[in-house]
Amino acid sequence: MKKRFHFKSIYLRFAVIFLSIWWGFNGITFGIIIGLMSDGQLEEMRRLTGITFLNAAAIGTLVILLALRGIVKPIKKLSNASREVAKGKFDVAVEIENRDEIGRLAADFNAMVREIGSLDKMRREFVSNVSHEFRTPITSIRGFAKLIAENADDTAAVREYGDTIVRESERLIALSSNLLRLSELDTKTIHNESVFNLDEQLRQVVLTLEPHWEPKNIEFDIDLPEASFTGDEELLRQVWLNLIQNAIKFSPVNGVIKIELNKIGGSVRVTVTDNGVGISAEELPRIFDRFQKGSASGGNGLGLAIAQKIVEVAGGTIWAESEVGRGASFTVALPTGR
C-alpha cells in the first residue's frame, strides 16, 4: 500500500510554525496598544490601528508563504530527482543555483548520481565481459566434447581434443579465481601485514618463473639493493608474478628483462622493463581496466587489474610506459611509512 505524506509536508509545517509566531507576536503587540488607549478619546485611532494591523498581518502572511515556497521548491526538485534515480535513471541532474546549504546539497546529489551512474555502467560492462569470457571456453569445451564422442576410435584425436578441454577448463578455473580475488580486493577483506625483504621476494619470483623464461633464453638485468618492507607479502608476490610473467611473455627469444628496486624518500619503487613488442598509444591508457586485453595478449584481461588493485590496497601507485616495438616498463611505488 502506498504511503501518503500530505500531512507531513515540510511546507505545511514551516507555514504553521512561522505564521503562529507571526500572528502571535502581532496579536500581543496589538493587544498592548489597544489596552493603552482610553475608551472615550481614541476610538477612531483604535479602528485605524485595527485596520492597519490586519492589513500588515495579511501582507506579512502572504510574504511568509511565498518565501517558504521558495525555500521548499528546491527540496521538491531534489525529491523528484531522487525518485527518478530510484527508477534507474542516472542521467538526472538537479539545477539549483542557490549558494546556500540547499545548493550544496544539490551539488552533492548530482555528484552522487554521476558516481552511481558510472558504477552502474561499470557493473553492466563487467557482467557483459564476464559472460563473454565464460562463453568462449565453455563453447570450446562443448565442441571438443562432441568431437571426442564422434571420434572415439581415433586415439590421437581423442588425446588432442582432451588436451584442449583440459586447457579450456584451466582457463575457466583461472578466470574464476581472478574474479574471486578481485571481489576480495574490492571489499578489502584480505589484509595480512608482515615485515619481509622486498628484494629477496623479487629474486624468488624470478626463480619461480624459470620454466617460462629459460626456453626463451631470456637474460635478467637485476639491480635489487636490500629493502625491508611492511605489507601483505602474499598479495605483493602476486603483483611481481604478474608483471614479470608478462615481461617474459612479450619478450623475444634472447630478450633482456631489467628489474630495478630504488628507495626514494619515504617509498620504494620497483620497475620491470622488457624489450618486447610494446604497447600501442591507444591501448596504454586502458591496460589496467578489467577485461582489457592487448592485441598481443592471450589472457583474460584481469592480471593487471588485480595488480593495480593490490598496489592501491597497499597505498601505492602503478603506471606503465611503452612504445610499440621498444618494449614496456611497469613501475610500482609503495610507501614505506605505513
Would you mind describing this structure in some detail?
This protein folds into three domains: 84 residues; 72 residues, Orthogonal Bundle (Helix Hairpins); 141 residues, Heat Shock Protein 90, CATH 3.30.565. Helix content is 59%, strand content 14%. It contains eight helices and seven strands. A five-stranded mixed β-sheet has the order 2-4-5-7-6, with helices on one face. The chain has a two-stranded antiparallel sheet with strand order 1-3.
What is the gist of this entry?
The protein has 338 residues and is an alpha+beta fold. The protein has helices at residues 10-36, 43-86, 101-150, 155-187, 198-208, 210-213, 233-250, 303-313; strands at 193-197, 219-223, 228-232, 256-264, 267-274, 317-322, 328-335.
By CATH, the architecture of the largest domain is named 2-Layer Sandwich
Low-pLDDT ranges: 1-7
CATH class of the largest domain: Alpha Beta
What proportion strand?
A: 5-15%
Distance between the termini: 53 Å
Rounded radius of gyration (Å): 35 Å
Question: What is the percent of helical residues?
Answer: 55-70%
Secondary-structure blueprint:
Layout: H1 10-36, H2 43-86, H3 101-150, H4 155-187, E1 193-197, H5 198-208, H6 210-213, E2 219-223, E3 228-232, H7 233-250, E4 256-264, E5 267-274, H8 303-313, E6 317-322, E7 328-335
Parallel strand pairs: 2-4
Antiparallel strand pairs: 1-3, 4-5, 5-7, 6-7
Helix pairs in contact: 1-2, 2-3, 3-4, 4-8, 5-7, 7-8
